[in-house]
Amino acid sequence: MTTTTIKVSDEIAPKIRLIVNELDFKNQEEFFQEAIRDKVIELNKKIFFSGSEVIANRPQKKGISAKDILSDFGEKRHK
Fold first, then answer.
1. Is 7 part of a structural domain of the chain?
2. Which pLDDT score is estimated for 79?
3. For residue 49, what pLDDT is reported?
4. What region does 49 belong to: left with phi over 0, alpha with psi -120 to 50, or beta?
5. What is the rounded distance in angstroms from the CA atom of residue 13 to the CA atom of residue 11?
6. Which residues of the chain are modeled with pLDDT < 50?
7. For residue 5, is it within any domain?
């Protein structure tokens, strides 16, 4: 495991301590690990969906409709 030091503002530090205590985290390290893991997952989803959107828009740019794709898929599937 890699160690990273972070600085937390005086404004948010007490809020983090409250969450750690109220939600029974073992310590602040566990809280930060979970928070960072959740943020990484969220950002990976964002990257995936933005890439999916680019791919999904390619047929439209070439004048191919969703109906054309489904029709072609249906024809190929029955062969």
1. no
2. 59
3. 79
4. alpha
5. 6
6. none
7. no
